[in-house]
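Per reviewer request, we include the raw input and output of the structure prediction for the construct analysed in the revised manuscript.
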Amino acid sequence: MTGKTAKTAYNPHHDMGGQSGGPVIPDKADDPIFEQPWHKRVLGLTVAAGGMGVWNIDMSRFRRESLPQQDYQHFTYYEKWLAALTNLFVVNGFVSRDELIEGYQGPLQPIQDNIMRAPDVAAILARGAPSARPYDGVAKFTVGARVTTRHPVDTLHADPGHTRLPLYAANKTGVVLFTHGAHALPNSNAHQLGEAPEPLYAVEFLAADLWPDSDTGHGDTVIIDCWESYLETA
């Protein structure tokens, strides 16, 4: 699909932002950090596996988005994480589908040199993995500029592809509040097409413009971080 047809049909099952999802139940002060013990294990596995440097955060997000619709809509939060991590292991040759089903019966594998060791985890997580990058170009937009978002289809670098522009913000006009500098572009980085850094802007939209058919509060606004290629001059 291309052009208008692709945009009309574009409604990925993972893009649930801006949709009515029922009442929000706030966390309580005494709520456990992890509802189930295995949730903590999945988070640990995901962080440790990411520390190998074989894939980046955008590739990891894309794998979660790529889960079959039935799985994505029925899996719990950490089930999505575990399923995506499993797929990353298979795609990158760390395990096979047969090994997942039958178990691994071969010899022990050598430990990688860049393994994340327990005493180092706190410092590594505190340092994070910044996506800010050097940029030789000139930012197209300045603070206060009125800009209009493109359609998510027009930002994709692959088919199927990854984008951080939500569908509810497609073709909407807002104002640049400030810039974050240049950052790696997820649309490219998720598909191993290079980081392609470009300016990242915080854009403010009127909630009434994003959801014209809803009873939004008067003057309510939403701020969305948009890469430069998501935007056009209004």
